[in-house]
Structures are given as C-alpha cells and as structure tokens.
Hints:
This protein has one domain (1-127, 178-185, 226-335). Helix content is 33%, strand content 15%. It has helices at residues 14-27, 44-52, 63-78, 83-89, 128-131, 160-163, 166-169, 187-200, 209-220, 228-231, 271-278, 288-295, 322-329, and strands spanning 3-9, 34-38, 57-59, 113-118, 121-123, 139-141, 177-181, 225-227, 248-250, 253-256, 259-260, 263-265, 283-284, 311-312. A 7-stranded mixed β-sheet has the order 3-2-1-4-7-6-8. It has a 3-stranded antiparallel β-sheet with strand order 9-10-11, with no helix packed on it. Strands 5-12 form a two-stranded antiparallel ribbon. Strand 13 (283-284), helix 12 and strand 14 form a beta-alpha-beta unit. The longest helix has 16 residues, at 63-78. It is globular. The chain starts with a strand and ends in a 6-residue tail after the last helix.
Amino acid sequence: MTCGIYTLANDVVYDQLIALLNSIATNISPDFPVCVIPYDHRTTKVAAEIERRPSNVTLFDDGEALERWEQFATTIWQHHPTAYDVWNLRGVSGVNRMGMHRRFCAFDGPFERYIYLDADTLVLGDIEPILSPLDEVDWVVYDFQFKDPTHVFNVHSPQLSDAFSEQQLDKIFCAGMYAAKRGVFSPDQLDWLLEQLKTEADVLYINGPDQAIVNYMVLKLDLNIRNLSKCLPANRVTGCCATSPHFERQEHYLVDGGKRLTYLHYIGIGSRFFRRLCQGENLDFPYRDLFLYYRYLDAPDQQPVFEGKPQPIGAQAPRTKNIFKRLRSRLALRR
C-alpha cells in the first residue's frame, strides 16, 4: 500500500518547503514519498528544488484534478450569503485563498494513505502513530483546534446548531495536518455535500475557507475521526504549535514534558518573516533556530550569519502587529 505525504507550496513559501522536506528526509526517511501540490502558477523555484531531489519527491501535475477541486470550492462559496461581498471589500477577486483549496487533490491523488502537512511545518518524530490508525478509522488528526471552533465555523450562524450536534463540533480539527485514505469521499457523497451546502454555507468560516470546508465534509458525513490528542495516553500526548513557548530543544527536535514532538506547525507566522530571515534579516520568532537548522541542512555554508540582538517580529511595522493578535487568539490550542 502506497503511503506518502502531501504538502501545498509555491515560491512564496520556498524556504519553508525546503525545511519541511529536509525534516521529512531526516526524521522519517530520505526515501519517503512526498508530493508537492502547487498553490498556484508561481512554482519556478519549487520545481527546480524538486528536480534536484531524489525521485521520491514529486510535483503534482494533474491539471484536471486541480481544476476540478477549484470548481468544487467555487461552487460552495457561491452559495455563501456574504463571502464574496466581504472578500471584494478586502480587494480579493474571486475565492479567498483559492490555492489552499488545492489540497483537496489529495483525496484522489497517487497515495492510498497519506498525511497532509502545511508547508510551514517540520516533521520531528515518528509518523507511524498517525498513519496506523487508518486501519480502523477514516481520518486521523493530532491537534487542539477543538478548543476553538471560531477558526473553523461561523459560530454566530443560526444554522450551525442545525447542521451539527455538539458532539460533532467537538471533533473539529486544524487543517494543517491530517491523515486520510484515497477515495474517502465518493462522487455521490461530494454531490450530496454540495447539495447540503446550498442552504448551510453560512456556517463556514470565511477567513479560513479551506479549513472550514474540509471540516464540514468530515463532520457532515460523520466520518470516523480519531484525534490523537484525545486518544493517546496522557503521558504520550504533546503539543504541536509554535505558539507554545515551553517546548525544549534536544539535538534537532523538540520535547514537551520529556516527550518528543511528532511535528511542529509554525501557525500564524507569515511566510514573509521566514523569507526575510533567510535573506539575512535578524528576525526572531518561536523556534527560529530549529527552522534554520532544517532549512540549511544541506547547505550550512549558505545560512545567514547574524550579528547583534534579533528583532522580534512584533516590533515590525504596525501592519505586522496583527500576527501577535493571531498568536494570542490561538494560545488556547497549545499544550
């Protein structure tokens, strides 16, 4: 059975993608299959990076699938009562963050079982505990998003309580990491979901459009979902978000209360900060040295040399101060 990892990337997140690929090669296997789904057409650097790597790293090139899932997302958002109006006011033409919806290509991609990871992630430990439950369940996650439904659904929608029970809402998850099987959604199920969303689209959170849709799909079909943060013994559970300040570094991974993290998600830290850091700007953000280690693992001589005290990213121009608002809003997700 073919297992692999999908991620979503373009040249904007080039540095993060390199760090992710290096962490997979180091902490899983240099031969583990990885498929990079293009976020959009800006993939010149990404394609060159994939070309220089072993053949187990590939660029997803099924144009029909990309178009099909973009149309799927477009159809959904056409039923939302306010999304397009709000996005237009923000200067967004069409569907907000359309490229993020391309992750849905994994539902019928080449891997029979897979883990999806956002590009701003490092794999730091054994992923078998994430993949092996797929023998028994449809969907596996490992996060604490269930503590904060406001970044998944419109909690003010009067339709939410009709669409989902409290027990279902307690199963919401972060779309930055999940494991599933190819074909988990049949064509008939997808048609049924689109039909339901004609009247229930208002429950979707428009600022995280792809995360809202994938949660809706999993919960509405009542898939058998396992969240390892709830199922693992307490002495084995770790956090996963860079918003958690208490992780300790050991060698080239992190531990949480003596337990090794499976992955670290740099949630809420914009790609521009990673890019500027790699261009030599002495910026500071959580676990930046771990990121730099994996980013330049294959080319340590190219790593920037910094002088003086690093500047916290919160001290940037006023427009970047919103990052700390986002980080604080997600503190409830940390361990």
